[in-house]
Amino acid sequence: MKNVGDGTRILNFLVDGILVFFLSFAVFKYWNFYVVNWHFKPINFWWFIGGVLFVYYSFFEMIWARTPGKWVSSSKVVDRNGNKPSVIQVIGRSLLRLIIIDFFFNAFWGKPLHDKLTKTEVVEA
């Protein structure tokens, strides 16, 4: 079980970030159709980013312990014993990703906040 480096994490972030953005934009445009035609309440785009981000990471990591970004970089999420993370760990990871300073902890701990607090690792698949 070999931990991945910063380059792999950046690749994961870029691939997943692009997918999350486009999914969020599609959901936002879908919602705006109802705002215009059915007078639904307008919602700020950043709420869609947060919601899609949470659902995206929760869905992929609960089922496969990998996101599309992790498939591209041949990595996966495991708990400290090398097993697939529990549902609580995955939900915790997804919620902690919503904190904007999550990635700054990489400089202090060598891993982001969502890995440290949920006791998970990203390793080579």
Descriptive overview:
62% of the residues lie in helices and 8% in strands. It has 125 residues and is mainly alpha-helical. It has one domain (6-124). The chain has a two-stranded antiparallel ribbon. Helix 1 (6-38) packs across helix 2 and helix 2 (45-63) packs antiparallel against helix 4 (87-96). The longest helix is centred in the N-terminal third of the chain and has 33 residues, at 6-38. It is elongated and about 55 Å long. The chain starts with 5 loop residues before the first helix and ends with a strand. The model has no long low-confidence stretch (mean pLDDT 96).
Mean pLDDT: 96
What general form does the structure show? elongated
Q: Describe the sheet with the most strands.
A: 2 strands, antiparallel
| Helix proportion range | 55-70%
Question: TL;DR of this structure?
Answer:
This protein is mainly α and 125 residues long.
